[in-house]
Design goal:
single chain; 254 residues
């Protein structure tokens, strides 16, 4: 589900909860909303409000951590690709084919995107990324080192290529984690209850209604950011591919 859709649904849910509160307020007898009743309602909703604030804070922290980790992974992957290319360059011209395959791998990554679905699925004209890096590793294994220096470089290149492959499989395994939807659903229910009580106690004037709508929009915006940052390679708030763009400019150079 898209992040904008999630945020929109949350805003709609909170707006409807507020409207229900306003409708119920108009139909309740006056003694149900006297000062004592409002004090009890405020005390009860304070508990739900505290739980909602804690849950929202945990989700924001989790989404931010996911985004930061993805950014580090992007930079690390670009650095490993550059290191692999330089090690192969030091080996000699025998690695030219493997270096070209590596450059094509990064070009494909930039054109197809940085998600598990686009990198792991072969298409009619392009192999999956895991097959590309395995082809690079096969070329490296087929090398016949002439001396100790080349043997060391071959071993190092195979080690770094293994790290690049590991990065790919980590992306595939973690690509479907996303948001804890059950946790988010419970949080939205708590927030809807809070906004319903706001409507229950609010006087029906344009100022109060505008403030409640702005608050609902703000909470929906927070949910949107959580949903978007929990999927850091797609969406409006996504990890920049600048490290890969910079890497591909350096690949293949002597």
């Amino acid at each position: 589900m898209g992040s904008l859709l999630v945020g929109g649904l949350v805003f709609l849910c909170l707006s409807m909860a507020t409207s229900i509160g306003l409708i119920v307020r108009a139909r309740l007898p006056n003694h149900h909303l006297n000062a004592e009743s409002k004090d009890v309602i405020r005390l009860a909703t304070a508990v739900v409000g505290t739980l909602s604030a804690l849950a929202l804070g945990l989700l924001i922290a989790s989404a931010k951590s996911t985004y930061d980790n993805a950014e580090v992974e992007m930079r690390t992957a670009a650095a490993r690709v550059l290191l692999l290319d330089r090690v192969m360059a030091q080996y000699g011209p025998e690695t030219d084919k493997a270096r070209q395959l590596l450059r094509e791998l990064i070009a494909k990554r930039l054109s197809r995107g940085w998600t598990a679905e686009t990198t792991d699925e072969p298409s009619a004209k392009a192999l999956g990324e895991y097959q590309d890096i395995e082809a690079v590793q096969a070329d490296l294994r087929s090398l016949a080192p002439k001396d100790a220096a080349q043997r060391a470089l071959q071993a190092r290149a195979l080690e770094v290529s293994g790290m690049v492959a590991e990065t790919h499989w980590l992306l595939v395994e973690s690509g479907k984690e996303g948001l804890p939807w059950a946790f988010l659903a419970v949080l939205v229910c708590w927030l809807a209850l809070l906004f319903a009580t706001f409507g229950l106690q609010a006087p029906t004037n344009p100022t109060v209604l505008s403030i409640l709508l702005v608050c609902a929009l703000s909470v929906a915006g927070a949910i949107f950011l959580i949903s978007d940052m929990a999927n850091p390679y797609v969406g409006l708030v996504h990890v920049s591919d600048a490290p890969l763009q910079s890497a591909i400019e350096r690949l293949g150079k002597p």
